[in-house]
Amino acid sequence: MKKMLIAALCLLTLSGSAMAAQNVPKELQMSGTVTENTGSMITVKNSNKPFDSVALHITDNTYILQSGTGYYLGANDVKKDGHVSAWYGPALTRSLPPQGNADAIIYGPEGSRPTFTYFNIGKVEPREDGSVRVLNVNETQYVTLLPEVYPEAAELKPGDKMLLWYEISTLSLPGQATATKAVLLQQGLADINISTTAGVIALNGKELADVKLVNKNNTLYVPLRAVAEALGYTVVVYDGPRSAVCTINSNEYGKQRMRIKLQNKPELIDGVTMVPVEMLDYVMGYSVKVSAAHI
Asked: Which candidate, 1, 53, 102, 142, has a CA 20 to 30 Å from the CA of 121?
């Protein structure tokens, strides 16, 4: 009888350990105040448990992003006493403070609340209506991507990292939300690289300096003619054959003979036709990276 009881206790212990292992997050998240930044490691005083502070190593795979806009930053743009939200680990050293590799850091004024979240995709679920539902690696949040929000959602795969904007999430587990905007994060240079700090657009080995850039409703607008002509396009107003089409105040775009619907519309601002950067990506087929890093 005693042997049977011991066996039962062992079974319960093993079962409990297995359940605990299943609940270990694949990625940790924290928010707090920067206490030190060496350029390669950022130490954050954690406003959450279980650690008072965590030292985050900045690697080539770390995304550092500006709160509010989602624009890319450099490590040195993160200042002491600034506020950050960070995703890291889950492996940590046993030192004080514990150290781990940062996956993503969102940096902004203390007390600011990002309008978006970093999202590490663990599962992709295409749906019959053309939308795609993605689940994060910790299996705590589902987000639905509608075709007009992210036309290339069918190409997403587990391991992709995104910025997702959404206003409401259910209190269920996993939570469920619908994105109002989505951006696929990328390392290195893109086809078109935009610096909002310097007011420069770099493309095709050229730099367009002192260009007009407009940030409106969390979307960056660029001058259509200047960018398109630098890419080798001829910008004309007519109704004949064309490779890319946009219409002022219409969110329907033409790509070859296809119609693409995006959230944001081209606008005439101070006599200049301004288009959302999404047009350069989804309609014209170029990868775009927007940076607010100080050069």
From this structure: 53
Q: Is 162 exposed, middle or buried (0-12, 13-18, 19+ CB in 10 A)?
A: buried
Q: Which of the four pLDDT bands, split at 50, 70 and 90, describes residue 18? A: very low
Predicted confidence (pLDDT) per residue in 267-280, tens digit: 999 989 999 999 99
Are 32 and 46 spatial neighbours (Cβ–Cβ below 8 Å)?
Answer: yes
Complete DSSP assignment for the chain? -HHHHHHHHHHHHHHHHHHHHHTS-SSEEEEEEEEEE-SSEEEEEESSSS-SEEEEE--TT-EEEETTT--B--GGGS-TT-EEEEEE-S---SSSS-EEEEEEEEEESTT---SSEEEEEEEEEE-TTS-EEEEETTS-EEEEE-TTT-TTGGG--TT-EEEEE-S-B-SSSSEEEE-SEEEE---S--SEEEETTTTEEEETTEEEES---EEETTEEEEEHHHHHHHTT------SS--SEE--TT--EEEETTEEEE-SS--EEETTEEEEEHHIIIIIT---EEEE----
Q: Which strand ranges, in their side-by-side order, compose the sheet holding 181-184?
A: 175-178, 141-145, 132-136, 117-126, 161-165, 181-184
Neighbouring residues of 131: CB distance < 8 A, sequence distance ≥ 6: 144, 145, 146, 147, 153
List beta partners, residue 103.
none
How many CB atoms lie under 10 A from the CB of residue 137?
17
Rounded-to-integer distance, Cα 67 and Cα 83, Å = 10
Give the model confidence (pLDDT) of 213-243 as tens digits. Answer: 998 877 899 999 999 888 888 887 665 555 6
Nearest to 266 by CA among 199, 225, 221, 200: 221
To 5 degrees, how large is the angle CA 163–CA 80–CA 119?
A: 15
